[in-house]
Task: structure prediction
Amino acid sequence: MKGQNRKIRVYGDPGLQQKTKPVTKITEEILQLIADLKKTMQEQEGLGIAANQVGIPYAVIAVNPRGAGIDQEPFAVINPELVETSGLIEREEGCLSIPGISEVVARPTRVKVRGMNEEGKPIELTAEGLLARVFSHEIDHINGVFFVNHLGKTRFELLQNQLKEIQGSQKSSSPKGKKQK
Result:
């Protein structure tokens, strides 16, 4: 199935702040969504992307292991959940939905993730290092959490002007110039 590049929603979009719905059945729509997520992620040079970042409220993520130095094709995990974490490392992190901002965030160095593959079969994956960070980041997305939500209060407050600019750019690009509420 050929994927299409989709528009990435940015900080301030209400759909990004809500918990996504679990996928109950693998349909053509879900398979197209997965193909689109992979295409969008690769064209944006992202390491991962969640369905709600393109406006679809389902618990689906795509991950690009090659971006983490692992020779493996991009893949999707449906209804992913972190079932085990260990270690902690602080490292700079960014997000396709918060362009131009990167901050140091603490994440697990190793994670175990459960979910389903594209055929709907149960899977369990273990990831370390950068790939563990990607899974943690994307699973946060499907739960309505941004990486900036992990920052201390003072650092988060210092970013408010930049975050408001990102929100403003979203509103000014809405159809027919109308501001979104």
Summary: The helical segments are 28-43, 129-142, 153-158, 160-172. DSSP finds four helices and seven strands in the chain. Residues 174-181 have pLDDT under 50 and may be disordered. The two ends are 36 Å apart (CA to CA).
